[in-house]
Specification:
Two copies of one chain form a homodimer. Chain A has 460 residues and is α+β, with helices and mostly antiparallel strands. Chain A has 14 helices and 18 strands. Chain A folds into two domains: 288 residues, Zn peptidases (Aminopeptidase); 119 residues, Alpha-Beta Plaits. Chain A is 37% helix and 21% strand. Chains A and B meet through β10, α6, α7, α10 and β11 of A and β10, α6, α7, α10 and β11 of B.
Chain lengths: 460, 460
Amino acid sequence: MNKQLKKVLQSKRDQHLEELKAFLRIPSISALSEHKQDVQQAAEWLAQALKQAGLENVQVLPTQGHPVVYADWLHAEGKPTVLIYGHYDVQPVDPLDLWETPPFEPDIRDNKIYARGASDDKGQVFMHIKAVETLLHTEGRLPVNIKFCLEGEEEIGSPNLDAFVAEHQELLAADVLVVSDTPMLERGKPTVCYGLRGLCGLQIDVRGPKGDLHSGLFGGGVQNPIHALVSILDSMRNAQGQITVQGFYDKVRPLTEEEKEAYRALQFDEEQVRKELDVPQLFGEAGYSFLERTWARPTLEINGIYGGFQGEGIKTVLPSEAHAKITCRLVPEQDPDEIARLIQQHIERHTPPGVTVTTQLFDKGKPFLTPFDHPAIQAAGRALQQAYGVSPAFTRMGGSIPIVETFHSLLNLPAVLMGFGLPNENFHAPNEHFHLENFDQGLVALCYYWFELEKALDQQ
Amino acid sequence: MNKQLKKVLQSKRDQHLEELKAFLRIPSISALSEHKQDVQQAAEWLAQALKQAGLENVQVLPTQGHPVVYADWLHAEGKPTVLIYGHYDVQPVDPLDLWETPPFEPDIRDNKIYARGASDDKGQVFMHIKAVETLLHTEGRLPVNIKFCLEGEEEIGSPNLDAFVAEHQELLAADVLVVSDTPMLERGKPTVCYGLRGLCGLQIDVRGPKGDLHSGLFGGGVQNPIHALVSILDSMRNAQGQITVQGFYDKVRPLTEEEKEAYRALQFDEEQVRKELDVPQLFGEAGYSFLERTWARPTLEINGIYGGFQGEGIKTVLPSEAHAKITCRLVPEQDPDEIARLIQQHIERHTPPGVTVTTQLFDKGKPFLTPFDHPAIQAAGRALQQAYGVSPAFTRMGGSIPIVETFHSLLNLPAVLMGFGLPNENFHAPNEHFHLENFDQGLVALCYYWFELEKALDQQ
């Protein structure tokens, strides 16, 4: 099968990339209400692509927010069923002036495709569709049953997917969940991920005087909301990088010696990361390595802060308001609701006099961990090994895909996270891109995987 | 003279207000380069108004930045010469959506005129011109010689006025400086101010990773520039409202018992301020009253902060940069250059690992104090007493007019600060306005003052 498959994929490559560009041109930013129609359009584009691939029962299913696109191929009688999850919504694109080419005008340079969503996650969703299409066209069948569940709200915390999955348990029933939305450990190192961090976050709104004041006339006599905000935020972390919100670490499952050893064995090059990011040094919770900090330890990050004058030069204002957005990455067994509550209590205890503080909770996601030795995980490793010709890494990841926990708890699905992005491809930042070498090898790996998975689950 | 003067002012009131509106319509925002032509237009408008008032030698004099408008009337032979200083530039207007009527479309409601610059300082500059015009038209002469020096860069720290005054010492030579750019203590309480705080400030620019990062993939392993910035800022003030920058208070001249007693005698209503500002409580340096904190104690205020995502909802970004603008109000004998240096040293000592921090200095102003018993100060009190019919307050003020110190050091001029704005007129904020009762009574007081000043300086 190998040679023929690669030949077909090669012959279709130009056409595939043109189709991908069309998909990436749709500005499906889920966070911004003015892009609602674009998100809908991306869903309809997907439905059309799934039909063209030979999938059946294709539906654009409404939710309270953006729709879910469903499709299946269920003719592998007696064989396991795979549920493929992905998302077709993308992050906002500001600051726009830092993009070398416009975010929604895909551009191929140096064998990379540049566009918002190229890597996270439209590019990878597209690969899954093309893998199935290619197998159906070349083999006439798939070795396993496949269902697609593609959502449009991942970048805003999947507010409606829990309800959707709960209402469609029969439709979505499967033996394993496969997601391609996590990056490879590094270039040339295909990766299977067995754990994800969870997420919770909130916006802090500090209000002081009812209007902006002249800092000369009132400065020193009235609490400044920005001072109050920085005091609250600074109280949440100490100089050792530890989060000082009371109870924050109470439920954290410590790293086992086996996990620590496995991470050390990856011989991860921290100096390389430092150089790539161009920082004087890396920084994080004292006593942990970079991989431990970003895979297996919880964090609290300030994602945005704003208040007062931001223009050119000086304005001697004592502002009326100040705001910050913070998110935590959580690890087993931290509970997002409990952590959000602990942070709110911390804020109450650390609010300086003279201002009022309110919080707005963002959507949450639970942390998740799959057994390392699950056959679907090991089969993924074999597929990657064959496609890339190197041994894959088995990792945990720092990012959050809240719905993985949803699928686990509602449908009792083990999850295989097999992503093809690279860590420096600027997800969520200007100049997002995707290396086409992983588009090519990843497509091969995905085709192999369905055969490996059939064998692995048959042996159970 | 009194009755005739008031009658003339009354008869001209509508015309005066129409002229003032025309002046206020010019968006002379000195901080924003796109308004350069508007600032120039405001200077030319002033020159025309000064000529119309009967002043002579009217000139729009260029500087490296915005021009200075000069005019004089020097026919009171053997009499003292007054230099009137004011500024025709205004603050930026953001946030624009909080203005009830547009900032550059003056609107009179409830006997107040609403517009950017109505109170600070175009309205008061205009009053000085109309006072002189009225006296020249009714009396045919002025009791003292008068020179106008009106600048267009006060709101950006008067970067070119030092050089201008140094180069025009003969042109500007005088016996006393009169400035109307300070507010009255409260409504119905005309005020002569004998001291001003100085100013220094800087922008703090924190840079971390070379681009924005995904907080899931990198969060916990890379210093977050916003965390670093809030840590730096929070280290500058303690919970008692004291500034913790080493050496900050070293040169501060303590309040004398006489000054403390004089401030207590004003029976200032702090609860009224609290209510007007709508804050849960006032806050400032422990051990000082509101007046002491805002008149005679130095401050460090964060005027603006920004970094990361500011839009609607959540974006899980670990940003590349974060920024803050801070300014200090200084009291005798603090030196702005020294304080700026102390802050820079503090920042260097308190920069967390993993980021680089740079600072940009803003323009500075020295603090200033005039002897309370100077005859020009006391004459101002008498003029206000006659115009308003109540005893005036003699105060110090929290704001900065850096050029007062310039005129003092270069021209050896005592300064009389006799302003007609009210503290809640939203200078530097949306809905700036000016009470027309103080436009009317202030015009009378300014006319009286030149006679009182002639007598007072004659007796010396």
